[in-house]
Amino acid sequence: MSAILVIAEHRGGALREATLEALGAALGLAGGDGRVVTALLADDPAPLAEPLQGCTHALRRVRHPDLAHYNPELYLPVLADIITALQPAAVLMPHSSQGLDLAPALAGRLGLPLYTDCTDLEFCDGRFTIRRPVYGGKVSQELALRPADTWVFTLQGGAFEPAEPGAADTKTEDTTLTDLAPRHGRVFLEQIESALEDVDIAAADILVSVGRGIGGPDNIPLAQELADHLGATLSCSRPVADQGWLPKSRQVGTSGKTVKPKLYIALGISGAFQHQAGMKNSGTIIAVNQDPRAPIFQVAHYGIVEDLFKVLPLLGERLAG
Amino acid sequence: MDILVLVKNVPEAAQADLEITDDGSAVDTDDLVFAINEWDNYAVEEAVRLKEAHGGTVTLLTLGDCEAEDVLRRGLAMGGNRAVHICDDDLEAGEPAAVVEAMAKVLAGESFDLILAGVQSSDMGHGQSAVLLAQRLGLPHATMAVGLAIDGDQVEVVRELEANTSERVRLPLPAVITVQSGINQPRYVSIMGIRKVRKIAVELHELEDLDLAATEAGASLVSRRKLFMPQAGQGAEILTGSLEEVCDQAAAIIREKGGLA
Fold it and tell me: Among A201, B73, B199, B212, which is 20 to 30 Å from A158 by CA?
């Protein structure tokens, strides 16, 4: 097959781990005879390229001072040139805040077909077959795609094994750009780390975590009470923080905190992928949800399919004192 | 400031018992309740707030079946001025690229200062349409806004990144921005409010009249589509028995695994 192109992702002077997962997926697709090419756009690519050694057949390092931070208007012309010359069978990148910003723009600019949030990719007889979640992860979709010169895919975090060094001999090619300006004038201003927090949920041994199923702010004390019995910290899923029922600092998930407590008790959390990614490595996970098909049960060790408002008082009684 | 908001009518799946159609290619939505896509609701609220602060108009645009008019009516009740409906019954096959072609056709000759949409839809989760539209119209874009401020002929956007990190970027207007959930607290919409806007006529376009080329109309990118539902409780050991027994077991597990005496 022709080459697979991977777009490397970096932030704050470090390569993002998801890049290696995309490389793992690319090497899998390329098989024995295919080539994996990685595009790394940065102000100073050399240190970022270190973890890529041995994980890609070719590494295109593109250098310009303004590439210190991601900007689609700078990435697009550079990537368009690479793709036009390389004619890869597929372009892979993480399904991240960057991938979601870049992939549709790249697809639109070059007229390439795109599928996002892929959890599985296969290439057979010139055709891709992919899997991706729909309906918040309650259903998985398998799609046999029509042939195209180049497909673009974004890959769900954690769905693919990261590439290991030694998978390929890496040939590096450097380009230093002099002229590079945003087409419309989008500019990066600053990166903002979250402000000081009331509590660090990542430091807790036990988390009692509430989701949309808690119903409203008036019911939060019910969960707090259980947490108090256990000496646990209260955390939540995105909808709870979105609606201001608990502060953002309590949010578990890709955009919030990744946690790994000894015990994670999920109350009324459906368990969308973004949430699972933030808690699935917890020691023991107990989930309470009325919906037996809630995705949270796919990562939980123990499940209670019940109304959480029936379960909470009884659990409280048993664990009080 | 004239703002366009892209909205979508989606089935509420989170609490629903989903079933797959007999041919295995789609979720059977006949018995599901439809509502505005959650992210789009935040986008409409943001648009109405900007209108209230800066003046101008809010136009709502959707592509969907007849029922999709509900989300337009709802958006009008929130403070929208105008609603445009591209009517199409074959929703499931709606590839983002085809949706965007239809929208671009309908929008030809119009101009907006800002186009907003939700980050993604809760059903298909493509997260593509708004950015594809930006490319189609030759406009700058920024996705995943958790903060948005107009500054003269520019807009400053706080984009949500991973791990409690965000970035501030600036774009010239007109621009396309996708809105992340939690950016605001959307106002409540009453039946009364929806009744009040019933006299606003929705501009209706039939998809089939738009004269899209076969490829544009989404002669699908997909040759075969198959859906899978995970087995109920797959992975977890589901505790069984009476409610009392289940709670006894759960309490024992919590004590043991939580290291409690």
Answer: A201
